[in-house]
Amino acid sequence: MATIRLLPPTLVNRIAAGEVIERPAAAVKELVENSIDAGAGRIELLLHDGGKSLIQVTDDGAGMTREELALAVERHATSKLPTDDLLAISSLGFRGEALPSIGAVSRLAITSRAATSDAAWRIEIEGGERREPVPASLGRGTRVEVRDLFYATPARLKFLKSTRAELDAAVDAVERLAMAHPGIGFTLSDGTRTPVKLPPIESDDGLLQRLGAVLGKEFAANALKIFAEREGLVLAGYAALPTLNRATASAQYLFVNGRPVRDKLLVGAVRGAYADFLSHDRHAMVALFLDVPSSEVDVNVHPAKSEVRFREAGMVRGLIVGALKHAMAAAGHRASTTVGVAALGAFQPGGGAGWRPPHASFPPAHPSRGMAEAAAMFQAPLADAHAGAATAELVAPSAPAPGEVAEQADGYPLGAARAQLHGTYIVAQTADGIVIVDQHAAHERLVYERLKAALAASGLARQGLLMPEVVEVAEGEAARLVAHAPALAKLGLVLEAFGPGAVVVRETPAMLGAVDVQGLVRDLADEIVELGEGRSLEERLAEVAATMACHGSVRAGRRLSPPEMNALLREMEATPHSGQCNHGRPTYVELKLGDIERLFGRR
Ligand SMILES: Nc1ncnc2c1ncn2[C@@H]1O[C@H](COP(=O)(O)OP(=O)(O)OP(=O)(O)O)[C@@H](O)[C@H]1O
Ligand SMILES: [Mg+2]
Q1: Using one digit for the tens of pLDDT, what is the confidence trace for 121-146?
Q2: DSSP assignment letter at 400
Q3: Which of 21, 124, 132, 153 is most exposed, with minimal Cβ within 10 Å?
Q4: Half-sphere exposure of 277 (CA within 13 A, CB side)
């Protein structure tokens, strides 16, 4: 049997490097973190072949003396844990592992000049073999060069991705750190292009500016400020309005005590907070900064420090969900400006061909199947006497008294209703533009918010039907509806079994008014099937309420009087979340006069 032996330091470092330095982007992250910890104001990166052949990081930070330089590349040598207290970590680094690990698997050279010294020194390590520091020249700060990463570990070399993919990952690593440090300037070049160019920002709203520079101008224009505090936890940052959304969750960033982390908790919390406003295949954009007392979080759970463990994950989640919901409620009827931009694009000569919506936030994602069908049903012209057919007729409100127009339009964000077009769209005049409202989508949202408020308060008021109505459905569906009868009663819908393939409805939610009972019950039956067996209706009351809201809404194709239209606009202004329907689609589009003038070449 082989004897037990201590491994030589080079091998130990190589093993550690396997965990800490997974790919060039991981080395980039470690080196940039070191520069940030050194108090740098500017950090410049040069990458060749996505970092595979060269990573060079130059900073203007505190620098190192000859002695410090020699120590820095030793394993477990760090300047960042002065008191041996793993709970009192205020820097990004603390393990004293990054430089020796990189040095074990590459050709590493560090040139540095301490702020207190006028001489620079350079040290080289090749495959873990350290040379003595030699005099060098450097203005100030530190320059680290990593050549031929993983040349000493060919197995790892094989797993590297294309230059493009490695460069993208490195850019992402730098951008994440840059978002948390708006006061520091960052550039990253690959020798020909400069994919990261972020000048230092000193102003008070530096964070929003930096987020805009990384996530796009639309994010900055459509972000809601987030702030919440609970038991020593402080959450700050920005979250985009639901109408600005993405196909993946990749634009959701969480920073814990200034450290970018990837945590499933964030994805879950954001999904929960936006559930009412986004269809399940669209994702919100957020950048959240959580400050937690060090006793509440363990940052030492992942080799690359990209995951953390919270002592009270439930509280953190609650804080995030609460803060996001609060911000969206406060945003009221606001929908993102990208909606108007997209609409204008469609008006451009050529029908908008070639024009692409910013971040695919519009046109909207496909609505869920049930809702699409329901919507289609309501788009159909109605036969009853009360409603006009869905024609292209214009219903102009009676002419307002002179002076009334401007006053009305000025006072209200959504303006004064001027016309109803195609029996579906309300056109309103605002102080500086035009608003077009989808009356069905808007009303659906309003009814939904009312239903939710009533549910939260006491349950929904019911109204008895003069004649109980029998609805025939499939046998299984009838059984399922009856099984969920108590929950439906809470929503104001009282039904009972009526033979094998039917139910009888005795009461309906008062709020919905005269509702199409047949259509409502059939949609609910569909919905309950989609819920599956596992989840109770109580858990999904909001979704069921959404289906009901759809039935209680002003149908497309229904004529509205001017007072009715204006009442709808005023209620939208007063109702949280009314800028989007339940799937993150806008309920209205706003065009500014300036943009319209540009359309006609008047500007
Ligand atoms: N760019 C730099 N400017 C000044 N000092 C630096 C720089 N990079 C590294 N150092 C010094 O070298 C030490 C070792 O760096 P290294 O990254 O290996 O470990 P660390 O940052 O302390 O911890 P971690 O392994 O968690 O990153 C640091 O503690 C710091 O004192
Ligand atoms: Mg470090």
Answers
A1: 999 999 888 999 999 999 899 999 99
A2: P
A3: 132
A4: 31
